[in-house]
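As a warm-up, study this chain.
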Amino acid sequence: MPHELLAGLDESARIQVALRVGSGLAVEAADAADRRAAELLAHSLAKDAVEEVRCALSRAIRDASHLPRDLAMMLAHDVDSVCCPFLEVTDVFSDADWQSLVLTISRGARIAAAKRESISDTLALALAETGETVVAETLVENPNAPMGAAVCDRLLDRFTSEIWVLDKLAERSDLLGDIVVRLTACVSAAAREKLTATYGMEDFTAPVVAEAETAALLQTVRKLSTADLVAAAETLHAEKRLTPYLLLAALRNRETAFLEVALSVISGRSLAHVRSVIERAEETTVRGLFDKSGVPVSMQDAFLAEIEAVRAALKC
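Now compare it with the structure written out below.
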């Protein structure tokens, strides 16, 4: 019967029917028979060949608190112009429904879901686990999206290389302390300053930042030739970044070529001399090189222990 009622109507008339049907389904106190008739019409309209008719239905029906599951799913999987207005507002889906939907709906639909005013931890996590970069950006920019530990952990794991996503996450003021510390090591300098200002955690985040920068530097120098190492070390020394902590990290990571070049640049001794001291000189001579290079006495034992390990490995 619904098909028969709609058969003789033009597009404009069917749009008007869709709007009335949606309004009827949004009324909770509707008569059971009238509601059933409206649901049947809505099913037919949801299959209409004209996109504008389905779009009118989705907008009119999105505030209904109760809808037949198959009708809601049909709208959720329609083209973006139909599904997005519906998914951004509707509250008919359970957390289990959302977990399933996020896997099957379009990217545009996932973006719409990420914009919702009402968004549960379950949906936020599903979007963080599955959504594309633009979905993640939308999610973290939504002040209503909960940013619990599980959601943030997933975003940090998935979008480490998409720094702009994490920079947007850093703009939030509702993050957990351990997330702030992790985030500090991944974001831009501007975002890091924002985190420090918002959370006042500079004392906690500074070591994490230093560790991340050290790791990045060592990964870079690992690929350089000797000539390029010298240039890099000279630049770092001029910027006062060639610290004892960086040198010890290089030694612990067995970046001995970089260590030797760095000590040569700092001490003013030749690279050949530094290499011979590191490889075979007695402890007093090694300590003398450390003194000349500004390595504090409190750290020299740690350096010596690592050098002994390097020498032992060379003998094998």
